[in-house]
Design goal:
- The complex is a heterodimer.
- Chain A is of the alpha/beta class.
- Chain A is built from 13 helices and 15 strands.
- Chain A has helices spanning 2-23, 51-70, 90-103, 115-128, 158-167, 181-196, 215-224, 237-247, 264-270, 272-275, 291-303, 312-331, 336-344, and strands at residues 27-28, 38-44, 79-85, 109-111, 132-134, 147-149, 172-178, 200-207, 228-232, 257-259, 279-282, 357-358, 364-365, 369-373, 379-384.
- In chain A, the strands form 3 sheets. Chain A has a 7-stranded mixed β-sheet with strand order 8-7-9-10-11-14-15, with helices on both faces. Chain A has a 6-stranded mixed β-sheet with strand order 1-3-2-4-5-6, sandwiched between helices. In chain A, strands 12-13 form a two-stranded antiparallel ribbon.
- Chain B has a single domain (3-124, 144-295), classed as ABC transporter involved in vitamin B12 uptake, BtuC, CATH 1.10.3470.
- Helix content of chain B is 75%, strand content 3%.
- In chain B, β1 and β2 (140-143) form a beta hairpin.
- Chain B is globular and about 60 Å long.
- The chains are: A alpha/beta, B mainly alpha.
- At the A-B interface, α1, α2, β8, α7 and α8 of A face α1, α4, α6, α9 and α11 of B.
């Protein structure tokens, strides 16, 4: 009996040390961290369900760092990137953020994708006074001085998508998402706006992040017979969702789907034929005809993969690094407090998605585009918002009376 | 929402979910019953099955490539199962806890190997056109892919039942299952029996991987999603019983699908765990109690 208990204890010890061992061991991309280098963290999921999307964001961030180093660095110092794997797990993100800041002493961190990962990292950044550059669209309802939110606020992605759908005459909406804070909050905002417009929410369903069983959800969609599905699923779940929708005879050409997390890269990985005809709302499409965009695509493809698909979060990740560099140079130093204030007053700067700027609430002023996926995995741009949209972290309908002043 | 109208389609969906649970669990159940081995790398056999399907479809793209992928995945994962058994499990035969750890390590190694070989992003396995559609029966739309999964599961179950009850090796398996020492004393090659069962279990998981690829993503983590329900099925079924495992898979698959009429998928999963806990409180020996010396510790 005792020996069994001992074995169980030993097992537990080994299991926990193995688990820790498996997660540690970040790689340093450049040597020469001493002397005149400046260390920054790059923290994305390189493994797990989010790897499908996040690895290329890491690549884009690394590309920017490499380009900046080739051009002489920041304030004459070369950037050393410390790459860590958040492993699609919020607590791993928090742990790695704390390691980067407190053990490695990085000046700033680029990374995060799911809002769950951002929410988990937020206390670490607030405690240490460091600065996170977050590249992905999110649900708003958060406003921290320690995060630069370059991804779309709800009024820069979700609401333009809804406006477009209303304009197309869709009256009945089915909301489906992964079960965490972004889809839940985004759908809360969408529901308020759908109801305000006098339209109908035909149903709302959530599946755990990484979940692959959509049988029940699809049965509900078949019953509810919506005009359009608004899809906030994240990661691999999308593959399962579209496969099972197709198997049930509901391909995106028969029942329109508007997705907020499917870009060119995800479409390519899923097989464009599976998602052909589905809609997406982003601040950037690879098919944008801009000179800076062509340059970025060429540089990325030269470094990584000649056929690589380029997505909105990759461009946000890339522009974050350049925005940090510009802010550091404006502030004349690496102190995160000064850098964030400098970033918010940088004014307009050129990016692959055209000129953008940071607003006083540390979110990006940017345009929104609606695109339809073609068979080659690229989006045909159907409409754009015209003017750049001012970011609104707190939707006035869903969160009345709240505002963001930093 | 009209929950009565949802009942029939969900009944069918439940059957297809149960089929996948069963295919994922049957290898675990058999090898646990026989060897008391908890194979943590079993989920990776599903994952490998998915990748083997992808490789087969690269070589034979046509409409019936997926049919060829089934035997390829079965034999491929069975061969890997043989390697695992001979290289790892046999050597740790008398140390069940060490097997648990070693196979878990193996599962991490296989996941990382798949990541390095095929990329972290996953690969595309497209259902051929004849499997991509659906059949309408009145109001109920039955996806062909799910129908195929149910049919394959019935075939596999029939095959295993035939093997266990009608063949020489099946007789040996039942003998070893009942009393390993005694079976060995009568001249049955216990190691060969164990190897056969382990390979067959891995092969069935590989088959499940191909079928899963019709409905879900093929990624290095694909096996992880199904390993927990598979363990639940094994525990609830009564360790090592084919009938019990089938019934438990059916109960859990149907329960999860029907619960989704009223709740979100997250809540349905939680309720499924609650169901298993309650069930084991009332009936700790599982659906079918197996009298096996192998389990008398």
């Amino acid at each position: 009996m005792i020996s069994v208990r001992r074995r169980v204890l030993a097992l537990a010890c080994m299991a926990s040390s193995l688990a820790l061992g498996a997660c540690s061991g970040g790689q340093s991309a450049d040597s020469g961290s001493g002397g005149d280098g400046i260390a920054v963290g790059v923290l994305q999921s390189l493994t797990g369900t989010m790897a499908i999307s996040e690895i290329t964001v890491k690549n884009a961030e690394m590309l920017a760092i490499e380009e900046i180093n080739a051009a002489g660095g920041v304030l004459g110092r070369k950037i050393t990137a410390l790459v860590e794997d958040g492993a699609s797990d919020p607590s791993t993100f928090a742990q790695k953020a704390s390691k980067l800041i407190e053990d490695n002493g990085v000046a700033t961190v680029f990374g995060g994708w799911t809002s769950a990962s951002r929410k988990a990292m937020l206390p670490v950044f607030e405690r240490t006074g460091n600065l996170l550059w977050y590249p992905v669209q999110f649900e708003g309802n958060e406003c921290s001085p320690n995060i630069m939110y370059s991804g779309a606020q709800p009024n820069q992605q979700a609401l333009p998508a809804l406006q477009w759908a209303v304009g197309q005459g869709y009256k009945s909406y089915f909301l489906i998402g992964s079960d965490y804070v972004y889809p839940r909050t985004a759908n809360l905002i969408l529901k308020k706006h759908i109801e305000k417009d006098g339209l109908k929410v035909a149903g709302e369903s959530y599946v755990p992040l990484g979940g692959t069983d959509f049988s029940g959800v699809i049965a509900k969609i078949q019953q509810a017979k919506p005009d359009i599905i608004i899809n906030t699923l994240n990661g691999d779940s999308n593959v399962a969702f579209f496969k099972q929708m197709q198997a049930a005879g509901l391909s995106p050409t028969r029942l329109p789907v508007m997705s907020f997390s499917i870009g060119e890269q995800e479409a390519q990985a899923m097989g464009p034929r599976l998602v052909e005809g589905s809609y997406a709302s982003w601040n950037y499409f690879q098919s944008l005809t801009l000179e800076d965009n062509a340059k970025f695509i060429a540089a990325y493809r030269k470094k990584y993969d000649a056929n690589a698909a380029i997505t909105d979060p990759m461009v946000h990740g890339y522009l974050n690094v350049y925005a940090w560099k510009a802010a550091v140079e404006k502030a004349g130093g690496f102190d995160p407090e000064k850098v964030r204030k400098a970033a918010a007053t940088l004014g307009s700067f050129a990016t692959p998605m055209g000129p953008v700027s940071f607003a006083a609430n540390q979110s990006l002023v940017q345009k929104a585009y609606i695109g339809r996926l073609k068979a080659d995995g690229q989006f045909e741009i159907l409409s754009d918002s015209g003017e750049a949209i001012q970011p609104e972290p707190y939707d006035p309908l869903a969160f009345p009376g709240k505002s963001c002043t930093l | 929402m009209d929950s009565v109208a949802l009942f029939l389609p969900q009944l069918f969906n439940g059957l297809s979910v149960a089929s996948l649970y069963l295919l994922a669990a049957v290898g675990l159940a058999l090898s646990f019953g026989l060897m008391r081995v908890i194979n943590m790398a079993h989920g990776e056999m599903l994952m490998l099955g998915g990748y083997l399907a992808w490789l087969t479809l690269m070589v034979v793209p046509g409409a019936f490539g997926i049919l060829l992928a089934l035997p390829v995945a079965f034999l491929g994962t069975a061969a890997i199962g043989a390697l695992v058994h001979m290289g790892l499990i046999r050597r740790l035969a008398d140390r069940p806890l060490d097997t648990l750890l070693a196979t878990w390590g193996l599962s991490l190694i296989l996941q990382q190997a798949a990541r390095d070989l095929f990329g972290a992003i996953g690969v595309e396995v497209r259902a051929p056109d004849w499997l991509a559609g659906s059949i309408s029966l009145g109001d109920v739309v039955i996806p062909s892919a799910r129908l195929m999964i149910i049919v394959m599961t019935l075939l596999v179950l029939g095959g295993i039942a035939l093997m266990l009850n009608r063949s020489r090796i099946g007789l040996d398996i039942r003998a070893v299952n009942q009393d390993r020492m005694m079976a060995s004393a009568t001249g049955i090659n216990v190691r060969k029996v164990e190897l056969t069962v382990f390979c067959a279990g891995a092969g069935v998981a590989g088959l499940a991987g191909v079928l899963l690829a019709l409905l879900g993503p093929v990624t290095p983590n694909a096996g992880q999603v199904y390993i927990v329900p598979a363990f639940l099925v094994v525990v609830m079924g009564g360790l090592g019983s084919l009938t019990g495992t089938s019934m438990a898979a059916l109960i859990l698959g149907l329960f999860s699908a029907l619960a989704q009429i009223f709740f979100d998928v997250s809540i349905a999963q939680m309720l499924m765990l609650v169901l298993v806990i309650l069930f084991l409180q009332i009936r700790p020996q599982g659906v079918v109690a197996v009298r096996s010396r192998a389990l008398d510790v």
